[in-house]
């Protein structure tokens, strides 16, 4: 994995958890708006919207650089629209990056099958 691909995956990982948290907070704010006088939906909606747009931009960049099959790219996109999907995306991206590091080290050392 080259440095630009690793950076693209890292950026996607960095935004996936905050995007998931903002989605959950937006849901809580929506419930509070309906059940009390507290209305933080406009502010939380804007924060979540910005994080979601960043996620989609970083997702597209990671898809382009990592050359994911359509199935993987679709999975990461679907995870962005699920309330806790960002946490699962972060975990999968971390595992993918670790596997890439192991494969790169194995190729450097000349291990067969890497």
3D structure, described in words:
With 114 residues, this protein is mainly alpha-helical. It has one domain (3-109). The protein contains 4 helices and no strands. It has helices spanning 3-35, 41-66, 70-80, 85-109. Helix 1 (3-35) packs antiparallel against helix 4. The radius of gyration is 17 Å and the shape is elongated.
Break the fold down into its secondary structure elements and pairings:
Layout: H1 3-35, H2 41-66, H3 70-80, H4 85-109
Helix pairs in contact: 1-2, 1-4, 2-3, 3-4
- Cα gyration radius (Å): 17 Å
Strands, count: 0
Using the alpha-carbon principal axes, give the shape.
elongated
The end-to-end distance, rounded to whole angstroms, is 13 Å
Estimated share of beta-strand residues: under 5%
Give the fraction of residues assigned to helices.
over 70%
Mean pLDDT: 89
Stretches with pLDDT under 50, minimum 5 residues: none
Task: Count up the helices.
Answer: 4
- What is the succession of H and E elements? HHHH
Biggest sheet statistics = none
What class do helices, strands and sheet pairing give? mainly alpha
Number of domain modules: 1
Give the assembly state of these chains.
Answer: single chain
Summarize the structure.
This protein is mainly α and 114 residues long.
List descriptors.
114 residues; mainly alpha; elongated
